[in-house]
Structure formats: C-alpha cells, structure tokens
C-alpha cells in the first residue's frame, strides 16, 4: 500500500478547481451553519432518569469548510449529525443557517444527507445516476444546463472515465467502493444543496480510498462554496489533515472544536499535552478521550473530565461562543422565496415520470427485477403444460383440469415472493430520498405500480400461451383471453401483497416468510382445498371473502366448465357418469354440474372484477399508508 504521506493534499489543487468549476452548483446563499448548547438524551432502561448522550455542543462551520466530527464509539457522533441534519426529533435549541432557523421543509431543500451505506441503484450508470438525481430535484432547468451539471460533477469527483459504467448489480460488477462513495456524494451535490452531511464517508474503505473520498469532498466544498459536515471514525494521517475543522467528542461532551492545524497549539499550549511525532494525530486524540480500555477506570475518568473542563475554560471555546453569537446577530438572515425554491420542487407528474423512467431502466437491466421471474414463470408454464398434457374432454380429466386450474393460479401468485429483493432495493432508495425531501409515498406507490403492470401482463400472456394450449383447456379465443385476464389480476394482487408486506417489514427474510405464509393461507381457503360450502364459519367469513385467489380460482373454473361438456365412461354395463346432469341420457356431463359441487354460477364476473380491483387497490393503499407513516 502506498504510504499516507505519498498521497497527501497537492499544492496544485486550487488551479485544478478553477479548471473544473461548476458555477451553476455554487452556493451563493448560505454563509454559515451554527448551533449552540445542543443536547440530547434517551430513556434509560435501568433508571427513571434519561441517559444523556450529547451535552451542550456548540459549533460554527462556514461556507467552503469541511468539518470532521470524531470520537470513540458511543461518543455521540451519529446523534449530533442527526440533530444537525434534523433527521431526528429536534432539540429545543435550533440549528441555524446564516444565524437564523428555517422551517423543516425549507431546511431540507438546502441540505442533503449521505448515508453510510450507498443509496444507489446498481443497474444505472454513473451518468444516469446523476441525471436522475438532478431531474428529481429540479424539473425546470434546461437539458443543456443539466448536462453541464452532470459533466461538471463527473470531472470534479474524478468519475469521468467511469461515466458509462453501471454501479454494480448481483450479476454484473461495477464501481469500486471508493467510486461508489464519491458517486453517492455527487448524487446529493447535484441537487444544489448548500450543506451536505455525511455519515462516516470513509467507512469500509482502505487508507487510499478514504483519502480519495475526503479529498474530493474538500475539493467540492471549495469549488462550490459548500458547508460539509462528516462524522468519521479513525482516518489516516493524510485523510485527517484534509479537514478544515475538527469537533472531538467523548461521552457526549466536546473536547475540542477548531481548526485541525491548531491542534498542536491547543494541546501543547493550553492542555500541556504534546502531540507525539510520527504518530497519527487522529489515533492519538482518540486514545486520549477513550476510557473503555483503561486499566484504571477512575483515574482515566478523572483525566477525561479534566480535559473536558479544560476545553470549557479555554480561550478557543470563548472565541467559538463569540463567533456563534456574532453569526446569530449578524443580520444576514436567510429567506428563501418561491422563486429560489421553485427549481427544487418539480411537480408530482414530473417526479412520477422520472421514477418510472429510472425504474424501467432498472427493470430491463437487472435480471433480479423481472428477468428471473419471467424465466421462472416460463419454466412453471412448461412444467404445468407437460404434466397436464393435452387432457381430453372426458370425465377422467375433470379432476386433473380442476387441479391444474388451482395449481396455475395459486402458484403463480405464490411465486410473487421473488419480487421481494427487487422491491427492497427500491424501498431502501425511497427511504433515503424521502429523508432528503426529493419525493414522498404517493410518487413511490404510483411509479412502482406503473412500472410493474406491463411486466405482469407480459408474464400472464407468456404463461398462458404455453400452458393453456398444452393442457387443452376450453379451446376458444374468448376462454383463452378470459384466462389471461384473471391471471393478470392474480399477479397484480400478489405483487400488491409483496409491496405491502415488504414496506411493513423491510427485511428480506421476514418479508419473504410473511408473503409465503399469506399466500399459503389464501391457497388453503380459496375454495379448492375445502369447498366453500364445507369451509367452517371462521375461515369463511374472516378470510375467504377477501382472498383474491378465491375469485381467480372461481372465475377460472367457470371459464373452463360453464360452457363445456365432457363424455362419460362407457363400459359393457352401460354409461357411467361421475357427475349427474341433464345430459346423462346422452352419456355426457354438463360442466355446470362440476361447478355446482363448489356452488359456483356464471354471471357474476363484473362483481368479481370489482372485488378484485378493490383488493388490488387496497393492498396498494395499505402499502402507501405504511410508506407515509414511516419516518
């Protein structure tokens, strides 16, 4: 590995910034981010008194600066970052931009949060990722300007050579970890924020990768006059030296806030603690404020409290308080008018169409989305058609026909569980983009339905073309298209169930288990296993009547048997019919006789379509409510 010193910040960076300046993304409004006496606590499981996790934090970051929030595990880094970005319950102390508080919606319009885990769609290229992020945040800018923004950020983040490379899917290798992290930041920067918050942007990267990410962060902060605040765990020396300011925390209390280059002066001059040579200053600082591994806990805690009190009494702390107070009283209040925020708020139709376009690209590039399902359903159709192969219109085929109808409808919906992983990626993307104020539950629900519907119809047609004619169901065009129609409704309902369950429990294992269980329940009470007249009262009235598989199975049975007759068995003793109908004297069975065993009668298709539509819409509304209510 290249030693840290060999990739330290280059003195030629300033001219380079000018060469790649993207003035259309430059922040000209926000001058500072400040907070004073910010505290937080959580309920304690072992005490009636709440546990304090952050105490009286004060800070000021100016435009063009990058701040590192550092401290050992449990020091309050993430809590402070979430409070500053207003992603958690707000503190009584407001977060100030240009010395003034903003309503949450306006605050979200000028800030962005980059998660520790990458919020990227693997099937998109680097250029497409930035393009769609821009479209979601600003619908009114010209195509040429949008293209300039994308190209400018590709240059600024060193991703020009990878611009047409996909991020990476389960079946196709894409970007490296460091490139993904840079793209994740660029994806938020292109939306035109003034403040960017990052949760451990170097996590999971080696020293070189971490340095690259922070170098580009510093570059973009200077280039676009942004305020960047990042929590960071244990950076290398070269990475640490790239930050302009440091906020050092331990047990929720501040030990230092100021310029990184002023660390030596503060600790040697005011604390009497010399920074050792040839030692990573970040590691040394973390050792001083971490008492978890100290042999003498009492001695270590006393020393830690002395260091914290030293900060409270320091000249640097006094100047910080004065600077924060001056920023608040400076009179440079931030007021965002309609004209300034208009670009950041595209209409619902624009957002939905952008999401549909993005999801459509994902759907045909990523085989996990629909490709695997189409192949799986094709294989299922071939298996079904060859097991129930060319059944003749005789009484011996009636039970196989019935079994085949149940198998085709029930297992088609059951295998919708394969959509869980693809929807989980969409859900995770949604939660992160929702927190950044790009769109909400309505746009997500509508776009997901619009993208999936054509694919489900295609699956229904492919499955039917193969299985229907191989099994020799009623050989008429009307019967065939009725079969396709009910399979299509079956898949729409099944996918709605997947969306609802996975939104409620966004875990692959849990959602898979719940969807499988629900489909098993619907299969049990849909009328095939136990005829509706025999089904006990509880299952009949609690589950049977809103079981979507019930209406699919019933109408597919009517489609097959209501207008078809079957020959009885002729033996030396005469004609033997398993079902007695008015055609028994002709040694035939009228299909309605089979339906009478289940209590099914034709003529109610319109009502059943209405019920199915209500079930499909109901699942989508339930999924929408889950997305809407989740924070």
From TrEMBL:
<dbReference type="Pfam" id="PF01061">
    <property type="entry name" value="ABC2_membrane"/>
</dbReference>
<feature type="transmembrane region" description="Helical">
    <location>
        <begin position="483"/>
        <end position="501"/>
    </location>
</feature>
<keyword id="KW-0067">ATP-binding</keyword>
<feature type="transmembrane region" description="Helical">
    <location>
        <begin position="508"/>
        <end position="525"/>
    </location>
</feature>
<feature type="compositionally biased region" description="Polar residues">
    <location>
        <begin position="1"/>
        <end position="11"/>
    </location>
</feature>
<feature type="transmembrane region" description="Helical">
    <location>
        <begin position="609"/>
        <end position="627"/>
    </location>
</feature>
<dbReference type="InterPro" id="IPR052215">
    <property type="entry name" value="Plant_ABCG"/>
</dbReference>
<dbReference type="InterPro" id="IPR043926">
    <property type="entry name" value="ABCG_dom"/>
</dbReference>
<feature type="transmembrane region" description="Helical">
    <location>
        <begin position="445"/>
        <end position="471"/>
    </location>
</feature>
<feature type="domain" description="ABC transporter">
    <location>
        <begin position="33"/>
        <end position="276"/>
    </location>
</feature>
<comment type="similarity">
    <text>Belongs to the ABC transporter superfamily. ABCG family. Eye pigment precursor importer (TC 3.A.1.204) subfamily.</text>
</comment>
<protein>
    <submittedName>
        <fullName>P-loop containing nucleoside triphosphate hydrolase protein</fullName>
    </submittedName>
</protein>
<feature type="transmembrane region" description="Helical">
    <location>
        <begin position="404"/>
        <end position="424"/>
    </location>
</feature>
<keyword id="KW-0378">Hydrolase</keyword>
<feature type="transmembrane region" description="Helical">
    <location>
        <begin position="367"/>
        <end position="389"/>
    </location>
</feature>
<dbReference type="InterPro" id="IPR027417">
    <property type="entry name" value="P-loop_NTPase"/>
</dbReference>
<dbReference type="InterPro" id="IPR003439">
    <property type="entry name" value="ABC_transporter-like_ATP-bd"/>
</dbReference>
<dbReference type="Pfam" id="PF00005">
    <property type="entry name" value="ABC_tran"/>
</dbReference>
<dbReference type="GO" id="GO:0005524">
    <property type="term" value="F:ATP binding"/>
</dbReference>
<keyword id="KW-0472">Membrane</keyword>
<keyword id="KW-1133">Transmembrane helix</keyword>
<dbReference type="InterPro" id="IPR003593">
    <property type="entry name" value="AAA+_ATPase"/>
</dbReference>
<dbReference type="InterPro" id="IPR013525">
    <property type="entry name" value="ABC2_TM"/>
</dbReference>
<dbReference type="Pfam" id="PF19055">
    <property type="entry name" value="ABC2_membrane_7"/>
</dbReference>
<keyword id="KW-0547">Nucleotide-binding</keyword>
<dbReference type="GO" id="GO:0016887">
    <property type="term" value="F:ATP hydrolysis activity"/>
</dbReference>
<dbReference type="GO" id="GO:0016020">
    <property type="term" value="C:membrane"/>
</dbReference>
<keyword id="KW-0812">Transmembrane</keyword>
<keyword id="KW-0813">Transport</keyword>
<feature type="region of interest" description="Disordered">
    <location>
        <begin position="1"/>
        <end position="25"/>
    </location>
</feature>
<dbReference type="GO" id="GO:0140359">
    <property type="term" value="F:ABC-type transporter activity"/>
</dbReference>
<dbReference type="InterPro" id="IPR017871">
    <property type="entry name" value="ABC_transporter-like_CS"/>
</dbReference>
